[in-house]
Amino acid sequence: AQKVTQAQTEISVVEKEDVTLDCVYETRDTTYYLFWYKQPPSGELVFLIRRNSFDEQNEISGRYSWNFQKSTSSFNFTITASQVVDSAVYFCALTDMEYGNKLVFGAGTILRVKS
Amino acid sequence: DGGITQSPKYLFRKEGQNVTLSCEQNLNHDAMYWYRQDPGQGLRLIYYSQIVNDFQKGDIAEGYSVSREKKESFPLTVTSAQKNPTAFYLCASSRASGLYNEQFFGPGTRLTVL
User: Fold this and answer.
1) What is the pLDDT of residue B7?
2) What angle do CA B76, B78, B81 make, to 5 degrees?
3) Yes or no, beta carbons of A44 and B99 under 8 Å apart
4) d(Cα A18, Cα A69) in Å, to the nearest integer?
5) In this structure, are residues B42 and A107 in contact, taking their beta carbons and an 8 Å threshold?
6) Selection from A80, A104, A113, A114 nearest residue A23 by Cα
7) Cβ burial, residue B69 (10 Å; 0-12/13-18/19+)
8) What was the pLDDT predicted at B40?
9) d(CA A44, CA B105)
10) Are the beta carbons of B103 and A33 separated by less than 8 Å?
């Protein structure tokens, strides 16, 4: 069955620190996609990145970077030089072929960045 | 601006009442989804629809119903059969029901049962 584990329930850092959010997944599918979403206090989920199972290149977008390792079934997310505006709940998600484009979400990691 | 709107933002329901949550999108997306979010549990899929006049149950469909009469609209009814409806409800849409299409989310409706 599809499963996403975000073991870190809550992380607190001081502004300008680097922080890594962990995501470990289990899947029965040979082709799948992984996503990261950000949920600020307003509640709306904001799409951050999509990665397919055939592309293990790391990706960097500004202060954000993602490390996908198929061998360890992990898709970790790093924020460099964190800012207060990064405070949010971050969700990792995995596609499930059995249900069309259904996403299986992890429980989320609450990130608190203090000034 | 293109996007997904959900209304109302906050909704209060008395026990035994049915309530309907609205979800509208102007992104011309084929697929639409309803998720429920509870603290510490992430999001769980209630129903999804890949095309007009068709929808499928997700993981927690009991006590909920949907319709998809128009491409832009996917309302969710929380019935009195739903024993614990207090939660945050999120609607999403995607271009098509394919693996590579990210889902875009609305701002959510927070439902509280009094």
Assistant:
1) 94
2) 145
3) no
4) 20
5) yes
6) A104
7) exposed
8) 76
9) 6
10) no
Hey, CA dihedral for A8, A9, A15, A21, is it positive or negative? Answer: positive
CA distance B16 to B13: 8
What would the two tokens of residue B60 be?
A: 């927690």
3-state class (DSSP) for residue A72? helix
Q: B21 - beta bridge partners?
A: B76
Best residue in A10, A47, A97, A102 for a mutation probing chain B (most B CBs within 10 Å): A102
Give the per-residue pLDDT at B98: 63
Residue A95 pairs in a beta bridge with: A103
Q: What is the pLDDT of residues A31-89, one digit of tens each?
A: 899 999 999 998 999 999 999 888 888 888 899 999 999 999 999 999 999 999 999 99
B3 close contact with A: CB closer than 8 A:
no
CA distances from B6 to A88, B61, B64 (A): 21, 19, 17
CA distance B83 to A102: 24
How confident is the model over A1-12, as a mean pLDDT? 94
Annotate A46-112 with DSSP letters as a single string: EEEEEEETT----EEETTEEEEEEGGGTEEEEEESS--GGG-EEEEEEEEEGGGTTEEEE---EEEE
